[in-house]
Amino acid sequence: MTNHDGAIIARSLSQRAAFAELYDRHERVVYRYAARRLGATHADDITSETFLVAFSRRETFSGGPDARPWLLGIATTLMQKHARQEARAWKGMLASDLARVDIDHIEQAEARLDARTLARRLGQALARLPAGDRNVLLLNTFADLDYAGISEALSIPIGTVRSRLNRARQKLQTAIAPALKDDKEETHGRTFAPAPSAD
Prior knowledge:
The chain is mainly alpha-helical and 199 residues long.
């Protein structure tokens, strides 16, 4: 018997208990994504609500083999109601989360700034991003979705995913640029004593 996500959801239309298998398969993925965006306090609620909404809308599922983008899209929509909590969670981002943000020169910035300062700068930059750009970036960073998965999760074209992701990364790059500039100026501004005379 085919046991991919689409088959489980199709089976759940007549056997409601079958949906529990989808929950068991993807609950941790949804929880981790919600926890990274909102913190553990709200992640349980978002995860539960995501699966309740998914169950009530299971007839609308496209029937693909992987339900993760669909579930994460529902979770992303539900998190829009928690913008204030999400902004607080970004201030507490961990170094491990920062390493997942794929922007140029992040390693240099990490070497230059302590993790807390870098997290604060990135958190402020995330808060200033338009919601669409932020959702694309965080689905890629925290949920490990590729362009096609993000496109499915947010019901937007892949070209829009690419442009939003590129724009978001550029804005985060701009947020860490002052630290890199300061580092470069300090390096170039150093004066060196003349070499001792050979005499």
